[in-house]
UniProtKB/TrEMBL annotation:
Assembly description: Homodimer.
CDD domains: RPI_A
Active site: E112 (proton acceptor)
Annotated family: Belongs to the ribose 5-phosphate isomerase family.
GO annotation terms (biological process): D-ribose metabolic process; pentose-phosphate shunt, non-oxidative branch
Gene label: rpiA
Organism superkingdom: Bacteria
Pathway this chain belongs to: Carbohydrate degradation; pentose phosphate pathway; D-ribose 5-phosphate from D-ribulose 5-phosphate (non-oxidative stage): step 1/1
Pfam families in the record: Rib_5-P_isom_A (PF06026)
Function: Catalyzes the reversible conversion of ribose-5-phosphate to ribulose 5-phosphate.
NCBIfam families on file: PRK00702.1, rpiA
GO cellular component, one term: cytosol
Protein name in the entry: Ribose-5-phosphate isomerase A
Reactions the enzyme catalyzes: aldehydo-D-ribose 5-phosphate = D-ribulose 5-phosphate
């Protein structure tokens, strides 16, 4: 009897492989965070190992990406050592028809925004379940906040009409702590009508480091889907 293959895992694998195929020899590559990008990192490592590509360096967007890159043999560098990023590959929690995103499900959106926005080509990898008509309809908006400002920031977000919740750890008592040592507030908005404006408004609250709205940053969205039991990848 053959084991059932998880369709979501299959979509993530295929879209990760398709994104890894876009990486060319001699390039600087932004390495995103999350379970979908993890496959892309794995396949970039495979292509390096097989000699299909050479001389690439990665810039990780999180501790997780750094650990995976090391595991799969991708040499790493930092933003201090380079003057550009050729391509960045990263996941998303929601993608709207204008290729605007909500990110931060892995609490890594601050570093992700730095790296993804710097890239000459930013490739988003998602399964089809992440496509939405309107941002905020299925996923709460993550906001990274410095710990001493958590109470006033949550109050300010509530005044904007959002419902903020402090993200709590799983298998860790207390709040999630980001790679920068900060906390994350997940905010429910009834409707995000103007993502560009909300991105700026939230970042203007003293104590907010960065929020998970990525507006006008994406170049390419690769979507993984399973049709009749077979995985396929298309560009949105
Ligand atoms: O923004 C992120 C991390 O901060 C991730 O890219 C996003 O949460 C998608 O993750 P996954 O591919 O595991 O669904």
């Amino acid at each position: 009897m053959s084991a059932e293959i998880d369709p979501v895992k299959l979509m993530k694998q295929e879209v990760g492989k398709a994104a890894a195929a876009l990486v060319e020899s001699g390039t600087i590559v932004g390495l995103g965070t999350g379970s979908t990008t993890a496959y892309a990192i794995q396949y970039i490592g495979d292509r390096l190992k097989s000699g299909e590509i050479k001389d690439i360096v990665g810039i990780p967007t999180s501790f997780q990406a750094e650990v995976l890159a090391k595991e799969y043999g991708i040499p790493l560098t930092t933003l201090d050592a380079v003057d550009h990023i050729d391509i960045a590959i990263d996941g998303a929690d929601e993608v709207d028809p204008n290729k605007n995103l909500i990110k931060g499900g892995g609490a890594a959106h601050t570093r992700e925004k730095v790296v993804d926005a710097l890239a000459n080509k930013f490739v988003v990898v998602v399964d089809s379940g992440k496509l939405v008509e309107r941002l905020g309809s299925t996923f709460k908006l993550p906001v990274e906040v410095i710990p001493m400002a958590i109470t006033p920031v949550m109050r300010a977000i509530a005044k904007l009409g959002g419902k903020p919740e402090l993200r709590m750890g799983i298998r860790k008592a207390g709040p999630v702590i980001t790679d920068q040592g900060n906390m994350v507030v997940d905010v429910t908005f009834d409707s995000i009508d103007n993502p560009a404006e909300l991105e700026k408004t939230l970042n203007n609250i003293p104590g907010v480091l960065e929020n998970g709205l990525f507006v006008g940053v994406t170049d390419v969205v690769l979507v993984g889907e399973v049709k009749d039991g077979k995985p396929l990848v298309y560009e949105m």
